[in-house]
Design a protein that fits this description.
membrane; 83 residues; rod-shaped; 88% helix; mainly alpha
Length: 83
């Protein structure tokens, strides 16, 4: 996932640099590169939101696993005391 973020960031920097430094404002090439940059920004935001949602889900799963004691060891201890 980090590779995707890095790739999107580099693509954004390159497309914006080309549009601002080498193209004349108002031409179709300039507008195309600006729309490409905007598309990359939207794509980056989408992937970032998906990443944060998945990260929160895995954190919640870890908390649930830690908070509940393993049943097998608890039952084993009860059986061991009875004997």
């Amino acid at each position: 996932m980090l590779k995707q973020f890095l790739f999107l960031f580099i693509a954004l920097v390159i497309s914006t640099s080309i549009a601002e430094n080498y193209l004349i404002a108002g031409t179709w090439q300039y507008l195309f590169m600006q729309s490409l940059s905007l598309s990359i920004i939207i794509f980056f935001i989408y992937h970032f939101i998906v990443f944060t949602v998945r990260d929160k889900q895995t954190d919640q799963e870890k908390v649930e696993q830690v908070s509940s004691p393993p049943r097998e060891s608890f039952n084993y201890r009860l059986l061991k005391k009875d004997k």
